[in-house]
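help with this:

***
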Amino acid sequence: MEKIHRFLEKLHIPNWLAIILFAVLILRIPSFFEPYSYGDEMIYMTLGQGIRQGIPLYSGLYDNKPPILYLITAAAGSLVWFKIFLAIAGLISIGLFAKIVKEISGNEKFQKVATIIFALLTTLPLLEGNIANAENFMMATSLGAIYLLLAKKPNFKNLFLAGILFGISFLIKVPALFDLPVVIIFWLITRQLKKENIKKTLVNSLSVFLGFLLPIIITFVWFLAKGHLPEYLRAVFLQNVGYVSSWRPGDVQKSFFAKNLPLLIRAFIVFAGTALVFIFRKKLSKNFVLASVWTLLALFAVTLSERPYPHYLLQAAAPIAVLLGIFFTEKSLEQSLVVIPLFIAFFVPVYYKFWYYPTAPYYLRFIKFVTGNLSRDDYFTKFDAATIRNYKIANFLAVSSYPTDKVFVWGPDSPAIYALSRRLPPIKYVADYHINDYSNQGEVKAAISQSKPRFIVLTPEASAFPQINSLLKQDYLLINKIDGAEIYVKTRNSN
């Protein structure tokens, strides 16, 4: 114990934070035993496998996120290691958050309460803290940048490094862009309105912005050198513009102003809220100012697409934890004032009907599993009813083909089957919604006719694909049926 204590002292980790980190690690143990089932994770795993095989991102295999998340999955190589990387990122985020709250307040009770809340929000399944989504990773780099800007000497080195961390966050997921102006606006609000202060803030902001651009420019140069820059720009930047409004397909025919009016209203709320904080800045503490501005910008990022995915809310976990810390520990006027930004923070998930995941059942079924009261198949089925079937299909494909053989799977579980079997599709799209949103069945049928994958799998949940029927009749033979899924193999006489 004494050695552990000395080790924690060297890392400047207080005992209470060490206890929180240890508890979080315990809470993350069930995630190491999760099956290959969650859709987004399976897409990341498939693209990571493609990277390991030398297939270029975006032109060879497609998804609409920046490249760093796929590089992480490529480095992981398996789901359990991906979850381990997630746990490491989560622990780093909590440690950085604890440093940030210590920097903005000397109240140790506030530090403990805010850190516990942040740890729970980012760890529990409630908001998909157990899932290796982009938000879980970009938090670590964004919090690292914010800590540098708040706690370290504002020289060019620290400012530039903070910018690089923001750039890395952006290259994990684009909405991280809204983390960048948090501290800059905080500087403008809390510093006296003198010419030299404004000039200093602008110069410091420029240093941060230059650092932010560096990793992004590196990716441009890399994809340009590899000949895939157009595909990169189209997937990560241009198509994400449409993604923002695609949750409201009925608005497609409306004018630009009418279609984007909700976005403009939210932008006005951010502007008005920030203006109010600025007007009353002399009566507000720095931690209240920082948390309020941070919450407004984070919620704007969270609601960009108006999609109700709970992991989006993780981007707002840090400022909300600060606000709740103020509410539970401060005995001042701000304990009442904090209700205003908290109301907005809790209004957003209610208004946009964000989903959530039950936490207690997640841990209870894991306990049943490890104590032998729940079989492996039953445990996996609790995550998704098709999980066991997907494992069977993937096992069949893995033992019936070579690693370089191509497989085409049509159905909503295609990414899981690709990831499990470690077999890749003959086209760049790995999910059926990719095809529906960015291509069409005619183009896919033409590509499959030309490449002739070794196997074609049709799952029972798949939507109709009439164009492929003639190809199956001419060049493929039904070789197996697994729980309603049909597996076709290419015949020897087909070209």
Summary: The longest helix spans residues 195-226. The chain is about 65% helix and 5% strand. The longest strand covers residues 476-482.
